[in-house]
Amino acid sequence: MRLIGMLDSPYVRRTAVCLDHLKVAFQHESISVFSTFEQFRAINPVVKAPTLVCDDGTVLMDSTLILQFAEASLSRGRSLWNPDRDLLAHEFRAVSLAMMACDKSAQLIYERNLRPPEAQYAPWASRVTGQLLAAYAALEQELHAQPRIFESDDRHGSIAAAIAWQFSYSMLPAELPADSYPGLARHSARLERSAVFSKYPPAGPGVPGL
């Protein structure tokens, strides 16, 4: 199988890290939806990262659906969801908050970096920023209220929260001071030192410090 997309995308990185933890073999191809658009389009005309090309040529998209497919048919019974049924709803909530934070971070980054300054719409940027802050405030609260979800390096909630925070904080530090989200900052830093995270660094065009 081939995983297509740059690791500066939190969605691609989440997919790679989770597939590795699931022991699902794949080949990662760092192809950009921007600088190598035509190359990406030749693989997937929709040009969406991550893209997973299955061994039979089937093309899948969306990190959550790719991982659902992997757990259902490729992982030999392994799952990264918490086995404690009482915690499962909270883990779903953690993942949904982390993905929402990624979505709003990307919207804000695109608004600032791709749209001409004269065309940027301040009320929209303010609304998106408010949603971003709300998502991280809720995720920080979840981390303190349900710490067991975030204890392991190989659970969906833990992985999604760490990757989302690294992405947003590296790209939007002015909006997300680390001292306002100390639990997330510590959690993300811990997982960034783990072996699997280190295999898939968030490298790519425009990533600060890389």
Written overview of the protein:
It is built from eight helices and four strands; from the N terminus they run βαβαββαααααα. It is mainly alpha-helical and 210 residues long. The protein folds into two domains: 2-73, Glutaredoxin (3-Layer(aba) Sandwich); 85-194, Glutathione S-transferase Yfyf (Class Pi), Chain A, domain 2 (Up-down Bundle). A four-stranded mixed β-sheet has the order 2-1-3-4, with helices on one face. Helix 1 links the parallel strand 1 and strand 2. Helix 4 runs parallel beside helix 6. The longest helix has 29 residues, at 85-113. The chain is globular. It starts with a strand and ends in an 11-residue tail after the last helix. The mean pLDDT is 95.
Question: Can you tag this structure with a few keywords?
Answer:
single chain, 210 residues, mainly alpha, Glutaredoxin, Glutathione S-transferase Yfyf (Class Pi), Chain A, domain 2, four-stranded mixed β-sheet, 55% helix
Rg result: 17 Å
Shape: globular
Number of beta-strand segments: 4
Cα end-to-end separation? 28 Å
What name is given to the CATH topology of the largest domain?
A: Glutathione S-transferase Yfyf (Class Pi), Chain A, domain 2
